[in-house]
């Protein structure tokens, strides 16, 4: 078993109750409270809390083993994102590694009511944020559509493309559609029309894509999103 003390500050000038010195003092007190002694210090100085925990300097190189303990002065020193914190907690639980913070105790202990409450609240908050993000994305997309703006290629009809959130027609679009209608009126089959359009309007590696289904939708006057 190895006991690690984890210290993180986002800048070298951080002071008060987040300075490296303050964190070290709190961690040593936390270790004594749990009859532990810090074997190795992990110092992340000038490292943002939004950077994933496992990708940080000094952390990525450590091979945590079952029975190890990680001490942190405050949970926000571990990470500034709830998802990252939950990921670390889940990983540590599965690997039988103990995570103890000065403000919430043993977050990996299933019998610790405070730890269970923290994990539960974080999980609910993340789910709430996820649903809000989905709703905001849908609202933003609807607003763009109302203004004639589009955000993804899936909003394009055949022969169109998206640039800077706007839909534009390729130069061949209207001429090609006229050609499709003309050939169909002359009795050409869908496959004959498809072959003609692809060969006529493709240029080098820029191959025109036209499925039979798309062709049918165009000729029948339907909106088709399968560009």
How would you portray this structure in words?
The chain has helices at residues 20-33, 75-78, 82-95, 113-146, 173-185, 190-201, 212-219, and strands at residues 3-9, 40-45, 69-72, 98-101, 105-106, 160-163, 166-169. It has 227 residues and is α/β, with parallel strands linked by helices. Helix 5 packs antiparallel against helix 6. It is elongated and about 90 Å long. The longest helix is centred in the middle third of the chain and has 34 residues, at 113-146. The protein folds into two domains: 3-125, 3-Layer(aba) Sandwich (Rossmann fold), CATH 3.40.50.1390; 153-219, no CATH class. Helix content is 44%, strand content 14%.
Feature tags:
227 residues, alpha/beta, Rossmann fold, 2 domains, five-stranded mixed beta sheet, two-stranded antiparallel ribbon, 7 strands, 14% strand, elongated
């Amino acid at each position: 078993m190895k006991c690690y003390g984890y210290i993180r500050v986002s800048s070298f000038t951080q002071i008060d109750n987040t300075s490296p010195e303050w964190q070290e003092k709190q961690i040593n007190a936390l270790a004594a409270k749990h009859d532990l002694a810090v074997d190795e210090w992990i110092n992340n100085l000038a490292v943002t809390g939004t950077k994933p925990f496992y990708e940080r300097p000094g952390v990525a190189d450590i091979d945590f083993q079952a029975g190890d303990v990680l001490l942190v002065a405050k949970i926000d020193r571990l990470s500034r994102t709830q998802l990252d914190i939950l990921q670390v907690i889940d990983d540590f639980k599965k690997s039988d590694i103990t995570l103890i913070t000065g403000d919430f105790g043993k977050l990996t202990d299933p019998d610790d009511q405070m730890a269970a409450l923290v994990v539960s609240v974080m999980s609910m908050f993340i789910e709430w944020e996820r649903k809000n993000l989905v709703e905001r994305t849908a609202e933003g997309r609807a607003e763009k559509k109302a203004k004639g703006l589009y955000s993804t290629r899936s909003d394009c009809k055949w022969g169109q493309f998206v640039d800077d959130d706007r839909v534009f027609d390729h130069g061949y679009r209207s001429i090609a559609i006229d050609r499709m209608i003309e050939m169909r009126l002359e009795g050409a089959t869908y496959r004959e029309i498809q072959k003609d359009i692809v060969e006529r309007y493709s240029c080098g590696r820029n191959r025109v894509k036209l499925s039979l289904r798309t062709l049918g939708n165009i000729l029948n006057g339907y909106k088709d999103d399968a560009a």
